[in-house]
Amino acid sequence: MELLSYMIKIDRVVRNLDKITPEMFDTLSLFTFNQYLSIYQIHKMWKDHVKKISYKNMHIKIQKLIEFNLIERETNDSKFKERELERGAKYYRLSEEGIFALFLYNKTSINSYDIYKNQSFKKGKTLEHISEIFNEYEKEIFKNHQNCNLFELFLYPWISIDTIKKLSPQEDPIGQIRMILNDCCNVIKERLLRFPSGINNYYLHDIFKFNPIVPDYIFRLQDGVVKLKDNPLLSFLKDSFSLNFESVKVKKENENRIILYNLDDKKEITLEYDDEKREVAIISNTNDSDRLSLKAYSINQVVLPNPMLETVVKGIDLKFLHYKAVFLLIMGKIRDDLVLFKNDKKFMDMLDKLKNSFDIKYNSLLDNN
């Protein structure tokens, strides 16, 4: 996912940060060491390890997390036992917004550690294994949610997930990595809050349905070949999904669904209007996890982000953030893990680029003297 798309996705949770209570974070943190959970499983954890709570009240708490887009339904039924599906269990997983909120507030550690520790004891671990248990706990969010966009943007360009999984408990590189991601999340938050009223303020009419009263025909997506630059929505999609061609074939499958093809007839993007949610889902056909939603007041009124957002996004230097991450780890306590980092090609490549960049600027400063 491109940074622009990611920020559009995260904007909603940034607007609701003051409404996320510590109790909500307590529930959310259970997902750090679980890829997915049912309401029943969450209720049992609370009842056994936190405090007594009725199933009805637990259900209300989960609905709040769903309302703020912090968790989402797990729709891949192949992950579950047939018996569980027959009972009608609904499973949920951390959303991109939920992962962002956890790292922004440093809630990826400690909150649910006691529950994780007790589960480890039930599996045969003892007090002698406390250091090992805590080390594994800190890694859980990286192992269970390794395909999230936050990691794709801010972590994987400079370190591999395999290195993170092998880090030892004696030093504190995992803690440093969490803090690095916390810094990245704060950068995103600060940039989005430059739009006090939110980023959505650009209305598009007639995308899905023709309305003769509104003359803005340029916004309408008609079947046929359309140049990306000739339509505000398509121009936005070109930047958000890094489309490297100039025209698309538009095909309306029905009143609420549009497919965009490249000129070689390969599906690129699907647009689906959801009347219940009042949103337009935009889904990459080349990468199903690469998706975002746009607010829609009706099928005839979809909202695009403020055009200035793209300028703000361009002001975020990802390479600098990657260099900073490598520098902080090198200067930190990674003595026992030096071999791991040395064998991580991503890390060493980024370290080499950092060194070259430093040398060039350092020598330039010396030359000026």
Question: What can you see in these coordinates?
Answer:
The structure is a single chain. With 369 residues, the protein is an alpha+beta fold. It has two domains: 3-192, Arc Repressor Mutant, subunit A (Orthogonal Bundle), CATH 1.10.10; 200-305, no CATH class. The protein has 16 helices and eleven strands. The protein has helices at residues 3-15, 22-28, 39-50, 55-67, 82-86, 96-104, 113-122, 130-144, 149-154, 161-166, 173-192, 232-240, 308-314, 318-331, 338-342, 345-368, and strands at residues 37-38, 71-73, 91-94, 200-205, 224-227, 247-254, 257-261, 267-274, 279-284, 291-298, 301-305. The strands form two sheets. It has an eight-stranded antiparallel β-sheet with strand order 4-11-10-9-8-7-6-5. A three-stranded antiparallel β-sheet has the order 1-3-2. A hairpin with a 5-residue loop joins strand 7 (257-261) and strand 8 (267-274). Helix 11 runs antiparallel to helix 14 (318-331) and helix 14 packs across helix 16. The radius of gyration is 23 Å and the shape is globular. The relative contact order is 0.12. The model has no long low-confidence stretch (mean pLDDT 84).
